[in-house]
Write a structure and sequence with these properties.
- With 229 residues, the chain is an alpha/beta fold.
- The protein is 36% helix and 18% strand.
- β4, α4 and β5 form a beta-alpha-beta unit.
- α7 runs parallel beside α9.
- The chain is globular, with a radius of gyration of 16 Å.
- The termini are close together.
- The protein binds D-xylitol-5-phosphate and zinc ion.
- The site of zinc ion (ZN) has 6 residues, from β2.
Length: 229
């Protein structure tokens, strides 16, 4: 099953409970974008928001760290109740493998994210180790950007590498509780218009911010994505 992960960056922060209940009712994951103003030229939100969401989230929280020195905060995200944690390959300073181990040792699913200018092949050495990969289909830092069309190929080549190693997991429910392979997530400019093609290219998790929360009817937007995949 392809999972839909609304990005809370586009939520209404004055009415966060309402938007969180929407995710609980209609979607599969909470995607939480953590930005530090250093790795990316924008600052989003941090632990107070993640911890508040944890109190009402009935769907798993998936935190996407766009920060330098991500290893410093891994344990803290685990304590906050995060189930999936991705770090950027570009921010890991050659210690991607070590940080994957650290994330897993804290009981979370470990993901490696890459911006659109990093060849997908850079992720191949981690196919046997990571629990998921996050292919950025825009440059990390802001919601509402235009989807980059070369993302389909990037997803397909990564998915091929995952399949070749016998690491793909079709049972996303089992994936949360067992060590049963590697999922591919796509993030940036995802909408009902490209969801079907992304799923066919091999994406298991679709992150969508503005196409959901800025839609006139967010539930209809999620349904439109589900019927396209
Ligand atoms: C961008 C973030 C995304 C963003 C997606 O750096 O990683 O998760 O919120 O927003 P949309 O769907 O509007 O492109
Ligand atoms: Zn994200």
């Amino acid at each position: 099953m392809t999972l839909i992960a609304p990005s809370m960056l586009s939520a209404d922060f004055l009415h966060l409970e309402k938007d969180a209940e929407f995710v609980n009712a209609e979607a599969d994951l909470f995607h939480l974008d953590i930005m530090d103003g250093s790795f990316v030229p924008n600052i989003s939100y941090g632990f107070p928001v993640v911890e508040a969401l944890a109190r009402i989230a009935r769907k798993p929280m998936d935190a996407h760290l766009m920060i330098v020195s991500p290893e410093k905060y891994v344990r803290r995200f685990a304590e906050a109740g995060v189930r999936m944690l991705s770090i950027h390959y570009e921010a890991a300073g050659g210690r991607t493998g070590e940080i994957i181990d650290l994330i897993r040792s804290c009981g979370m699913k470990a993901g490696v994210a890459v911006n659109p200018d990093i060849p997908a092949e850079k992720l191949f050495p981690y196919v046997g180790k990571a629990d998921f990969f996050l292919i950025m289909s825009v440059f990390a830092g802001f919601g509402g950007q235009k989807f980059m069309e070369n993302s389909y190929e990037r997803i397909a080549s990564l998915r091929e590498a995952v399949d070749k190693e016998g690491r793909h997991c079709d049972d996303t429910e089992r994936w949360f509780t067992e060590d049963c392979g590697c999922l591919v997530e796509v993030d940036g400019g995802v909408s009902p218009a490209n969801a079907g093609r992304l799923a066919r290219a091999g994406a298991d998790i679709l992150v969508a911010g503005s196409s959901v929360f800025r839609a006139e009817d967010p539930a209809a937007a999620v349904r439109a994505m589900r019927s396209a995949i």
